Amino acid sequence: MENFTYKNSTEIRFGTDRIDNEIHDAVAQFGDKVLLVYGGQSIKKSGLYDRVIDQLADLQITELSGIEPNPKINSIREGQKLAKENDIDVILAVGGGSVIDASKVIASAKFYDSDPWDLVVQANGADRMKLDQVPLVDILTLSATGTEMNFGSVISNPETHQKLGTSGPNSPAISFLDPTLTYTVSKWQTAAGSMDIMSHLIEQYFNHTTTNDASSGMIEGLMRSVIKWAPVALKEPENYDARANLMWTATMALNGIVRSGNEGGWTVHGLEHELSAYYDITHGVGLGILTPRWMDWVIATEPKTVARFAQFGRQVWNIQGKDDTEVAQAAIKTTYDWISSLGFPMTLPGVDIKDETNFEAMAEGAIKSSALDKVAYVPVHKEDAISIYRAS
Ligand code: NZQ
Ligand code: ZN
């Protein structure tokens, strides 16, 4: 096991009936000038917007709406302007990962005087870790990214075809996780979110440290939770146990705990962020298409990985058998079948990516921004990345 430091100060308030009683004080403790950030119409349709506004009636609310999926840098620019003009004390983000990710960068951008894209690419001397950050309270409405308890954000710049990860010094101050708020999430987004959770676990399970049984066991248990509950949530959108398990599993999958003591990993996210950057597709859907193709490529390229895939097959999918290669291959097929059963289009043409025009640029972008040739579970070079896109 590698050395590690783990610190995470996000306060999680999990469960039903908490928002109406607690949101006011949770926000107001940081000040009375609030930037309320949200996406499209989902929180208005569900009534959540009215509930929040009622509770915060005595505070000064500035609104930033219209944060799109795969949040764009222009929204951050708008948020920066509002945060500065109104001298915002606290941000309240209400929505999915895109809304919370955008809010985290706005929280830093209030204290930066130039273009906030610098904060994402760390250009022009910009360093988010050294900037102050407005405290962030969030109400999560979609189980997927884990952003509610981590330091990361992923921001897109359509002009440059870049979708890049960035980290700030703080995770959210308080995250409200009420599973009933996810009852209205569509089948498409429920499937995509569940795949995102599964992918976060896969990316961290297949890493360079082979002796961290604490991590492996936690990840295997969390994977079994997604595998069990995603189909239930799709069939019965208002099944509390399904929504609650997906929500807490999503948070646990990417709050840094399960990767503590491990080194390396993470390939498919780098490849997927390029798909979203060029084609603006749903993150989890891109992961669902690429993941089994990456797995096929890994065991074909590096036979030493078969043992780990066999462990994955036995512990996660309960595949019996003595021959590691057979169990490993069955595990990849079972993973493919589970993803497909969630209702995904399982090919790139299925999401309207019908030719290879951008594969070369995407492969170069993925390797550059995610160092896939250095830190990936099995190093990925340009031709490898192109072959994984082609196989998809
Ligand atoms: O905009 P609204 O109207 O709110 O609709 C959203 C949006 O259209 C809708 N939605 C959210 N909650 C809903 C709902 N619809 C009905 N009922 C509800 N309760 O769902 C759509 C997608 O929302 P989005 O926030 O984009 O989804 P998600 O939470 O999956 O976030 C995806 C983004 O997070 C990034 C992804 O790359 C992508 O940009 N990621 C962030 C990570 C992080 N910060 O740690 C890690 C991840 O790997 C990921 O890259
Ligand atoms: Zn993800």
TrEMBL record:
Keyword Oxidoreductase applies: yes
Location of the Alcohol dehydrogenase iron-type/glycerol dehydrogenase GldA domain: 10-179
Molecular function in Gene Ontology: alcohol dehydrogenase (NADP+) activity; butanol dehydrogenase (NAD+) activity; metal ion binding; methylglyoxal reductase (NADPH) (acetol producing) activity
Record protein name field: NADH-dependent butanol dehydrogenase A
Highest taxon in the source lineage: Bacteria
This protein's UniProt keywords: Oxidoreductase
Organism placement in taxonomy: Bacteria, Bacillati, Bacillota, Bacilli, Lactobacillales
InterPro entries assigned to the protein according to its UniProt record, in alphabetical order: ADH_Fe/GldA (IPR001670), ADH_Fe_C (IPR056798), ADH_Fe_CS (IPR018211), BDH-like (IPR044731)
GO cellular component: cytosol
Fe-containing alcohol dehydrogenase-like C-terminal domain sequence ranges: 190-392
Family annotation (Pfam families): ADH_Fe_C, Fe-ADH
